[in-house]
Model the fold of this input.
Amino acid sequence: MVIMFHSIAGQTIGSTISEYDFRQLMNRFHENGFQAITMHQLADFMEKNARIPEHSMLLVVDDRHYAQYFEVLFRKYWTDYGWPVVNAWISAFGGSDPALAGNASLANEGWVDYQSHGNSSPHIAVGPTSTDEFIRHDLQGSMENIQKYFGKAPIAYIWPGGGFTPHAVQIARQVGYQMGFTTNPRGPVMFNWVPLADTIDTQRSEWIPEGPVNDPLMVLPRYWDTDAILHIGDVIKIGEEAAAYSEKNKAVEMQYYDIACESLFGSIP
Done:
């Protein structure tokens, strides 16, 4: 499960989740045996089927925040369970950003990972009329800022406002991003399995169809924090069904490997 945290404050309404409901969500994850992973772990899993915990989640906090935000809300889960968190960092303010020093300190500790979330404030979502100049300003500018101030290149682009186009995805790949994330809560992801839509759903017209992009890793879905707790059981069921299917077909797949692959890659240990 990839979870999008947009705002944690007050009461749960719209894109804001209350701190009480946030704590309930995190407790439910722990009760169901979920483990938070890093962005690099997810990339290795999606690209190479690298091993991750059976019930994994990626916690993505959108937008820039002062370090205190992570200290108050997320440090407990790093201390208690070893759960890292990803921040979708808005880099529009460059080196003069008053929130930069505190966040750089968290990055040095290693439990808050900073990934790209655009280089403009306020956000302007990418759309069909976006110019190449604007798209590259957001994609390249964000990458360069994080490289300069956080000491490492980001591998993921969290599309501001959830907006993307096939052309923007192509540019993102050229800039060097390995993954991208939408605001479409279509479901969980597995290796070689990403839920997509090819056409607009009239019931959910704000969900941009990802199929035309023809690059699933650049348009990965995210559950909204406000109702993610309602989907945990469904996600576990999907995982169990996938595991059962895999076990059912294991003998045939092993036989195929022996016939078609062993001469090239050697025997499976």
User: Anything to note?
Assistant: The longest strand covers residues 56-62. The chain has one domain: 2-229. Strands lie at 2-5, 7-8, 16-17, 35-36, 56-62, 85-89, 112-116, 156-158, 179-181, 223-224. The chain has a mean pLDDT of 96.
